[in-house]
Amino acid sequence: MPNHIDALLRTACTHAEHGRFDTAASTLHTLLTVEPGNAAAMQLLGLVQARQGDLRGAARTLRQACLAAPDHGPLHVHLARVEWELGLPAQAAAAYQRAIALGCATPDMLIDCAIALEKLERHAQALDFCQNALAQAPTHARGWQTQANLLHAMKRLDEALACHDRALELMPDAPGWSGKALTLDALGRLEEALACHDQAAALCPDDPSMLTHRGITLGKMRRLEEAVACHARATELAPCHATAWSNLGAGLCKLERLDAAIAAHDRAVSLAPSSAAIWLQRAAALLVAQRQAEALASCNAAIRLDAHSAEAWRHRALALESQGRYEDALESAEEACALDIGCLEASYTKADLLCLLDRDAEAVAWLAHVYQHHPGNETLRFALGWTQLKNGDYANGWINYQAYRSINPAPCLADERIPLWSGAESLAGKHVLVHAEQGYGDVIQFCRLIPRLASMGCVVHFLVYPALKQLLSCLDGCRVLTQGEPLSACDYRIPLMALPQFLLQSEQDIPGKTPYLRARLEMPYRPYPGLRIGIACSGNPTYSSNPQRSAPLAAFERMQRHGDLFILQNALEPADAAWLQSHPSVRHPTAGFTDFADTADLLGAMDLVISVDTSIAHLAGALGKPLWILLPYASEWRWKSGSCTSSPWYPTARLFRQARQGNWEELFCRLDQELARFSADTLYLQRGAA
Fold first, then answer.
1. Residues 81, 11: Cα–Cα separation, whole Å
2. Among 223, 368, 568, 628, which residue's beta carbon has the most beta carbons within 10 A?
3. Residues with Cβ < 8 Å from 43, sequence gap 6 or more?
């Protein structure tokens, strides 16, 4: 009988070697009916089943073989490889570790085990196996590449980069270049990352995963059209590659091609409905498209799949916030923060929601707590300062607010070789250069501090943007100039937005004198019968919050029954420009203006200025004009929050807030009623029928 068994086994081997797998399998089944526990036969049958494409059958057979011969290392190796092909990394890792314990610790086997453990995110254990492999075979290119990937996953990026370089010295293939590109991308070295992506593409131009990684880097470089082209090509090459579709959707969203973006995300979730990350990407696009209910549903799907995803909970908070459900949104933001204190975006979202709920003191306490976990994070320090200012804590708020220079470095107008004033040195008899920074509105708001600085006995030179020079030339206590004009030698320089930390320790320190700027002419334009209403519906389009603070020009249409409308901003968004063309009775005398002094002259002729939160509002307030400021529900720190309707910055201003984020319609209804009272009770009584 043993000779018969051996003969059957040899026959099956011959059939398998010649590719006659069905015959080999039949022979082996015959053998196993005679001797069911024959481990060699089960081993060969498992390999034959794998070659036939029956991986599950192969795994079952090899598991039985391992039970029959538990100390046979090669059996565990074969089982591990089949388990890996089945997408069962935990079982594969266990089989590899058993084989290694039985003496099958070749470098390749150690690396295979490390890759399986990497899939399980057991990175430290995987790194040990990888290092053991490289100790045996220091020129093992795949070992260096695997070690690089592990170190990258452990955020040891500099070490990972060194391993990538060693792997590429040994084997400069496309996966090696692509892996190095990913690490350089994570290090923020995007130009170098792109160069490595290009090397990978030259060797393997049609790999979908490499294309989509290249697209991600291009997206970070703001080369959005090229990024989308990479992602689109990846979907052409691999129509079932869900991640490629998801990345295509993200790229299209950044290009504001929202219908196409959401269609791509829909395709992605249809291909990978069990991927929390892909549902989350879809939610982000739906939020941009303001399809809040669908965004919330996508967030919920992501959370069902991965309840520990801080990003999913954060996006859920954003979706609920966009629906005005601030309490519910706060619960989701708190869940995100509890899951990951390192998710700073979640911390900012929680702080914003606390402010929306008029719980500013809690927002300050929360950000201060988070800052303890991330000392030195300037973005977080700025957020803390911003919130402290909104809560009225000027003493600490202005100090922390100074972090904005680190997170948004803009070209300095002044010669940076001039020493910065620390606040400790005496300024008596000194020449001091104050230089403008941030936006036009900020300069107009805080130039009021210049006379107070001059009262400290110094000669002040005020370096401003060209568009503001004529307007600000009326300021007391300083010489106003722009870049390129002759400047006396200065002892110190002070950025304009640094002045408040020295001169505004509380709200009571705000200089009360208004107007502190003035127009050149009292009434330069022909008086019109009726109320003259100056309006501004939007600000600088490059400002990140401009969409939230801007109102559609069409919303002002109902104001025409109260008087003549004059648009005070020099440029309009395309939709607003189109509306203006169809309403010729609305005048736009500031079209093409480039100097704020010209705008101030026009403001001098207005009876009332109605403006969103932009430089026009600051200009009207500085001129002491009757001013109504239209604010989004989540307004900037300077306008406080809640029921506050007046401003310590501009005594002639009234604040009108949205009752709910994004709802301009209700605000303009209130505005219409107030304007009726204003025109009837104030100006017409004062001017008569002028």
1. 25
2. 568
3. 62, 65, 72, 74, 75, 78
